[in-house]
Specification:
Blueprint lengths: L4 E5 L3 H12 L4 E6 L2 H9 L10 E5 L8 H11 L3 E6 L4 H8 L5 E4 L4 H31 L1
Parallel strand pairs: 1-2, 1-3, 3-4, 4-5
Helix pairs in contact: 2-3
């Protein structure tokens, strides 16, 4: 059994492939990689079983195509219960302020090492599960009143 399912949105193919290889060595399943947000969103929209939804989406802010990673992350966080982790080599505060609106679990600043990436992924999965449990408890408490 894997430690979690991950989808990578990264338009630098070599970086995405290297990240995938390294993450898989830590028992994570990388179910897909996309250089364009539109392709990844189309993939997610075809998922039929809840257990096939990724635990984490690693999202580069700058992507090929017409949509950036922040826009794609907003759609994903609205429609799916998976954690968003932004990948970025940018260090402009206004970019991070824009990202915070999507409520990502964490950030990975490029360049990063694999141990930092794995710790970030573990933290994102943990925080996401914690939030989902809290929301379920609140719903149960609300329905009992």
């Amino acid at each position: 059994m894997s430690s979690g399912k991950i989808i990578i949105f990264e338009d630098e193919y070599l970086l995405a492939n290297d990240l995938k290889r390294q993450i898989m060595a830590f028992d994570y399943e990388v179910s897909a990689m996309f250089g364009k947000a539109e392709e990844g969103l189309a993939y997610l929209s075809k998922i039929e079983k809840k257990e096939d939804i990724p635990d984490v989406v690693l999202m580069d802010i700058s992507l090929a195509g017409n949509m950036n990673g922040i826009e794609a992350a907003e759609i994903i966080s609205t429609n799916y219960q998976c954690a968003i982790v932004f990948l970025s080599g940018m260090n402009q505060p206004e970019v991070y302020e824009e990202c915070f609106k999507v409520k990502p679990r964490t950030f990975l600043l490029k360049p990063f090492d694999i141990y930092q990436a794995v710790l970030t992924i573990k933290l994102a999965i943990y925080l996401n599960k914690l939030e989902l449990r809290l929301l379920a408890c609140m719903e149960n408490a609300g329905s009992k009143n």
